[in-house]
Each structure stands twice: as C-alpha cells, then as structure tokens.
Write a structure and sequence with these properties.
Layout (H helix, E strand, L loop, with lengths): L4 E2 L2 E10 L2 E11 L9 E2 L9 E4 L13 E4 L3 E6 L5 E6 L4 E4 L13 E7 L2 E6 L3 E6 L4 E6 L7 E4 L6 E4 L5 E6 L5 E7 L13 E3 L6 E4 L5 E5 L5 E8 L18 H4 L6 E7 L3 E8 L2 E8 L4 E6 L3 E2 L9 E6 L2 E6 L1 H10 L9 H7 L9 E5 L4
Parallel strand pairs: 3-21, 4-26
Antiparallel strand pairs: 1-25, 2-3, 5-29, 6-7, 7-8, 8-9, 10-11, 11-12, 12-13, 14-15, 15-16, 16-17, 18-19, 19-20, 20-21, 22-23, 23-24, 24-25, 27-28, 28-29
Length: 379
C-alpha cells in the first residue's frame, strides 16, 4: 500500500482593511509534517500517463544559455534567458523556433537586457534594463515603451484586466511596490532589511492558473499573498513547518550576524513554489537537505519527500526541475545530455524510461536546447 500523508487544511479568517471597508479572506494553511516523509518514490507513481515531451529547436538564433522563466499559452511557449542570451525566445507548442521577441540593442524599440516579462491579451510586456516596460505583439512588432525609472525593478507583473502593476523593486526602500497604470505607487510592502532577507528569489510573482489571481512570495517568509484589485496584499496560503518554521522576529537585521551561518539551516527555507490549477509544488531546504512537498488543492493530499528519494523513471535522470506551469501541467526543464546518459545507462533494460523519451534520445544532440517535460500530477 502506498503511504499517503494528508495536508491539514486550516481555514483562518483574516480581516484586511481596504478603502472599501473590511475584507475577509480565507487562507489555506498547509501543514508540512516532516514525520510523514515518504521514501523511494518513482515519478511515474505521481503523474498521469499522458506526458508531453517538447524538445526546443536549436538554431543559430534560438540558442538558449540559461532558462530564467517559461510562460506558455495554448499555442506558444516563451523562454526568457536573462543571463546569457539576454533574449526572449518564442517557440510553437511543439518546440519549433519561431522568433526572438524584439531586436537586441539599446534603442527605444529594442531590448537591451530583459529582466522579466508577462503576457496579456496576445501582447508581451518586457521589463528592460530595470527601467522601461516595452510591449510587443506575438509577431514581434514593437508597440510601445514606457519608462518606470526611477523606481526600477528586478521583477514585475500585472493584475489580469486591470491597471495595477506589481514590482519587485530590488532597492533600499521596499521589496514590493504596487502601482497604478501610470506607475504611481499606491502601496509599498516589506521595508528593506538586509541583503540576506531581501535576496532575489525564484518565481516571486506568479498567477494562479485557475483564476488568474496574482500571487506574491517573499524570501524567508512562509506566507504567500494575493494582490487584490485595489493593490492590497492579502494572505493567500501559509506553509506551517511546525518548530522548523522561520520566525520573523528571530531574523537578525545585521547580515553578518552569526545566526545566518550557525542557526539558519535548522529552519525550513522555501526555495521556490509553483502552482497549477490542481496542485502545488513546494521546494525547500532544511539542515542542508533539499525537500519537495507536492499537494493536491482538490483533495488535500500531500507527498513529502527528500529530493534524493524520488527517482525520475520517466527521463531516467534526477536533475530536472520545474520552470513554469501550463493549466494542469507542471513544466520541467531537462538537459539533453542527461537524457542521453540516462537512456545509455539503462540500455540493457528496454522497459526503463518513457517510450517517448527513448525515441527522442535516438537523435538528440547533447549540446542542443533544453527539453521541456510537461506532467500532470494525479493523486
């Protein structure tokens, strides 16, 4: 019998004062019970049988160095490489390269260094050089450029169908600024403390795939927040690690405090969180070990395990990691050379590995662009 642990769902009413009065929000508290750790899991035991394998076409113009962000629509996949190629690549849903979004360069209609992007109404909004938002259509045509300086930002997004923007500022004032359509600040949250607490994190702003709600996540904080139409922050989901939870009052203001090196590892630190319409994927570190917590938003079940306890029997490698979501599917990034090695190591047993992966490996170049693995959790 498979071991199944249950998330304890505790609904707490938070009263949040807004301009329109008092707003109550139900907050789901997800209790992470480390005593319910599972051991020796296969990825195939957690997902539906129908998976999607998407090799991203490699050309001289589509060579990806480091994937920073992935967004997908029904027809297209968009890849941001912020660090190396410093470009946004557009692929078909089958992985065929279509174009780069915008031309590289310092001009007003070009992209100098894309920091972040989001998609709305068939338009791509790019945060360029932390100072401008440049908009393009799906054909790559430039639409407009708007200056956000002097605030700047190292990440941003926008509430669906509204004029409210959210900026991860990266400055010495606040971590999060909420602005109106003209980039006038209407709310600021979490005053700057130090470089450890206010460090950049993976996926700090994302949209709930079920209803488009904009979610904000902060470093060393166990609570996720939604942003409402008035630009106000409302608790959305809490992760309770028991006595391993980070107490905010324990975090030192000085970044050279011995606490960071001597005691911090004893607390659960969330590394990243992704959420499909039906499941959440929580990655956290504790005592220098990496853990994963998968939870079903429909049934409340959770699968809690150390990363070393999960065997990816689909691609036969254990280095893939989530980079985005599409509807009910989690998008994992897999390096081609890892697929090739995994299949080669299992060559004596043709039953190992997913048939789609084995077929792909026959003609896969180890130096080609990454492969995307789309899976739907099924528990």
């Amino acid at each position: 019998m498979k071991a199944i642990s249950l998330i304890v769902l505790v609904f707490i009413l938070f009263a949040c004062t807004t301009k329109s009065g008092s707003e109550k929000q139900e907050v789901e508290t997800v209790t992470i019970d480390l005593s319910q750790e599972l051991d020796k899991l296969n990825l195939s035991d957690l997902i539906a049988e129908d998976i999607r394998i998407i090799p991203l076409e490699t050309t001289d113009r589509s060579l990806i160095g480091k994937v920073s962000k992935v967004l997908a629509t029904a027809d297209y996949i968009f890849i941001l490489d912020m660090l190396m190629a410093q470009s946004i690549f557009m692929f078909s849903k089958d992985g065929k390269f279509i174009r780069k979004i915008g031309e590289s360069g310092p001009g007003p209609k070009e992209i100098g260094r894309p920091i972040d992007f989001f998609i709305e109404n068939q338009e791509i909004f790019v945060l360029d050089m932390e100072t401008h938002i440049k908009t393009f259509d799906f054909e790559g045509n430039f639409i407009e450029s708007r200056e956000v300086n002097p605030r700047g930002g190292i990440g941003f997004s926008k509430l669906n169908g509204s004029g409210v923007f959210a900026f991860i500022t990266g400055n010495a004032d606040f971590n999060l600024d909420i602005t109106d359509h003209d980039f006038k600040v209407i709310h600021s949250y979490f005053p700057y403390q130090n470089r450890r607490i206010d460090a950049g994190i993976i996926n700090p702003l994302f949209r709930n795939e079920a209803d488009g709600t904009l979610i904000y996540r902060r470093n060393m904080n166990d609570t996720l927040y939604s942003i409402n139409s008035g630009g106000e922050l409302i608790p959305y989901r809490m992760f309770d690690f028991g006595n391993k939870s980070i107490r905010q009052d324990l975090l030192p203001k000085e970044e050279d405090d011995p606490f960071w090196n001597n005691q911090m590892n004893a607390f659960a630190q969330i590394w990243y969180y992704f959420e499909t319409a039906s499941h959440g994927y929580l990655a956290f570190a504790l005592n220098e070990e990496f853990w994963t917590g998968l939870h079903s938003k429909n049934t409340g079940e959770v699968k809690l395990f150390k990363r070393t306890s999960l065997w990816n029997d689909v691609t036969l490698e254990n280095n893939s990691y989530p980079v985005g979501v599409f509807q009910d599917h989690m998008i994992f990034l897999v390096e081609p050379r890892n697929i090739i090695k995994g299949i080669a190591d299992a060559s004596a047993d043709p039953t190992l590995g997913h048939p789609k992966v084995r077929e792909l490996a026959k003609n896969l170049d180890p130096d080609s662009n990454p492969v995307l693995l789309l899976v739907k959790y099924d528990f």
